[in-house]
Specification:
Blueprint (H helix, E strand, L loop, with lengths): L12 E3 L1 H11 L2 H10 L6 E3 H7 L9 H6 L8 H10 L3 H14 L14 E2 L2 E2 L3 E5 L2 E4 L17 H4 L12 H9 L6 E4 L9 H11 L9 E6 L1 H4 L10 H13 L3 E7 L9 H12 L3 E8 L7 H14 L1 E8 L6 H4 L3 H12 L10 E6 L3 E11 L2 E11 L9 E4 L42
Parallel strand pairs: 6-7, 7-8, 8-9, 9-10, 10-11, 11-12
Antiparallel strand pairs: 1-2, 3-4, 5-6, 12-13, 13-14, 14-15
This protein binds pyridoxal-5'-phosphate and iron/sulfur cluster.
Length: 449
């Protein structure tokens, strides 16, 4: 596996073969270690020492939610695939072929994220930038395309298994800046990855400095998408590069712009360690605003109490709940996925137990090729039960904020499984594949999480 370990972020991590050894040592369970070895041949795993020492409850592994967040589990593969990898373990060429075949079946590129939404500038493709919604452009800095650890449900898993063709990576700050100068409608630039905080501050600096140059005053908010507070909070506290990174981020605030750190919090336990609280305080100390988001995933946080506890903890820490996502249709979705009906129930039951200040998370949201679709609930209409849906963001801006309906389906997990409830609703759905029709297949779309 190729990983980009950056000097500034002295994260010690465990991945590949060493994961099975770690599980054998901590859990004293040879079968579990074997399963870890098999599954980690197919999907990418990387665990930081912070997660191993401060987040996972080893007494409850493998059922502990924080263990499930980052460690392989046999149910992530279907039993046939699991057996095929197991049988090929001693035979490297056979193993390579088996693994490649299985990865291909796991929908590695939901929504063609590598080919859609890539903007053009002066006739040339601008790689490493996605500009789908007018106000917010995403930037994927080349050296930020990995994370301090990997969420086992990550929808970017394909880029972590090391095929360079699968990586979103940019052409450098000057190209990004030239594009933004020509797009005054962009108010927000979101640095994403991977996790941009894996980069040494010296790598991130040219991007941040460039955004603060004259001519880009329309970019009023710089967002950083990160899970460092959960996976490697020392990044902003005791790492050799921590003070320099904070100074760099502070320069955004000093320039009169808003600095929004979009933190990914899957479970309330992630916010408990003292070092994480110090990292939050350090960010507030430089004038950053903190917003949180995460998907609802089975085995990790499919429980209203986990969400309500996480939101309450965030309110105390000064983090605004922002998005609750529906897990995408990629990777180990058979293991993590939940019916939309259930995801909505979890959201609603969680929201009902917190004060208004805790009810700011919008969701559950599917980030699809057509836009961000929120599931508002299930309505009983004269023609039967229906999902009530709404675009929060849409490729066609005119569709935003207009309620529409899909036929209720108790098992549907994703947008592509939904059908319009009535002829009125058809306008909100993409043209679906009919036999002999080369229509576009609706699927998940890349988004910052
Ligand atoms: C979610 C998302 C954004 C950001 O949307 P906001 O509503 O501004 O947070 C931008 N681009 C893409 C592709 C997204 O999925
Ligand atoms: S979900 Fe986000 S933080 Fe987690 S591994 Fe993927 S990119 Fe990194």
């Amino acid at each position: 596996m190729t990983t980009v370990e950056e000097l500034g972020s002295a994260t010690r991590t465990v991945s590949g073969r060493r994961l099975a050894a770690l599980v054998r040592e901590r859990c004293q369970d040879a079968n579990l270690a074997h399963e870890v070895e098999v599954v980690s041949r197919v999907l990418p795993f990387k665990v930081s020492h912070h997660v191993i020492d401060h987040l996972v409850d080893w007494q409850s592994a493998p059922d502990d939610p924080l263990y499930r967040l980052v460690f392989p589990h046999r149910d992530m593969l279907d039993p046939g695939h699991f057996g095929a990898v197991e049988r090929a373990l001693g035979d490297p060429p056979a193993l390579r072929a088996v693994v490649a075949g299985i990865r291909g079946e796991l929908n590695p590129h939901p929504g063609d994220q590598l080919t859609r939404n890539i903007p053009h500038h002066e006739g040339a493709e601008l790689s490493g930038v996605q500009h789908k919604y007018a106000q917010t452009a995403l930037v994927f800095p080349r050296h930020g395309q990995t994370c301090h650890a990997y969420c086992s449900y990550c929808f970017r898993w394909a880029q972590f298994v090391g095929d360079p063709q699968l990586r979103m990576a940019d052409d450098g700050p000057q190209h990004v800046i030239r594009y933004l100068r020509a797009h005054p409608e962009v108010t927000d630039v979101l640095f994403t990855g991977g996790d941009p905080l894996v980069m040494h501050s010296a790598r991130l600096k040219p991007y941040v400095d460039a955004l603060l140059e004259p001519g880009l005053e329309h970019v009023t908010t710089v967002r950083i998408g990160t899970k460092a507070l959960s996976f490697h909070p020392a990044r902003l506290v005791t790492d050799p590069d921590a003070a320099e990174m904070l100074r760099l981020l502070e320069s955004v605030v000093r320039a009169g712009r808003s600095l929004a750190v979009m933190v990914h919090v899957s479970h309330p336990r992630e916010l408990r360690p003292d070092v994480t609280r110090r990292a939050v305080a350090a960010l507030h100390g430089i004038g950053a605003q903190l917003w949180s988001q995460a998907p609802v995933v089975r085995h990790v946080n499919d429980d209203p109490r986990a969400w309500a506890d996480a939101w309450r903890a965030q309110l105390v820490l000064g983090i605004h709940p922002y998005y609750v996502f529906v897990e995408r249709d990629t990777g180990a979705r058979r293991y993590f996925g939940l019916p939309l009906r259930r995801v909505h129930e979890i959201y609603r039951d969680a929201v009902a137990t917190v004060s208004g200040l805790g009810r700011t998370a919008r969701g559950p949201v599917m980030s699809t090729a057509e836009g961000k679709v929120v599931v508002d609930g299930v309505a009983e209409l004269p023609g039967g039960p229906a999902f009530v849906l709404r675009f929060l963001q849409a490729r066609v801006p005119d569709l935003v904020g207009r309620p529409f309906h899909a036929r209720f389906d108790p098992t549907a997990q994703w947008w592509s499984e939904l059908v319009p409830f009535s002829p009125y609703d058809r306008a909100f759905f993409p043209v679906r594949d009919e036999p002999g029709d080369e229509g576009e297949r609706p699927a998940a779309q890349a988004g910052p999480r």
